């Protein structure tokens, strides 16, 4: 019989939750960098305050998420490479493409008008194609080592720490 107590005794995170941890950490790290890069351009005091609140919130989220990386199921997570802006910008574009695919898929399920549905399907297919192009761009350059979990997680830790240090 499964109990909460039996789960607490596991020596590491499950693979699927480790990958979700990666997705959340990578996305929030990229967003945090972008927030910090543009906050100086925000002139409206209320919007500026909202950006500061978002920055503080995401920083706290990353600190909390990073605590789980030692529980990931595999190996060495230290990276001696600094993330360059190519990886950041590619990650931003990949996050956009992924979100676009999800948003179009949801939008299609809410569409009753056939012509709008066709338009959204066309745009969904374009978003899927863009996602694939960006993913393979990153994979080929070693910016998204999706088949090497320890390297993927090491990149998350490095990116989150870089975002926190800005």
Q: Give a short account of the largest sheet.
A: none
- What is the terminal-to-terminal distance? 47 Å
Tell me the overall shape: globular
What level of helicity do the residues show?
over 70%
The mean pLDDT is 84
Number of distinct beta strands: 0
The total count of helices amounts to 6
Helix/strand-derived category reads mainly alpha
Give Rg in angstroms. 19 Å
Percent strand equals under 5%
Low-pLDDT stretches: 75-80
What attributes does this structure have?
single chain; 166 residues; mainly alpha; 6 helices; globular
Q: What would you note in describing this structure?
A:
It is a single chain. With 166 residues, the chain is an all-alpha fold. Helix 2 packs across helix 4.
Write the layout of secondary structure elements.
Layout: H1 4-8, H2 15-38, H3 45-66, H4 85-109, H5 114-140, H6 149-165
How would you summarize what this structure contains?
Helix content is 72%, strand content 0%. The protein is mainly alpha-helical.
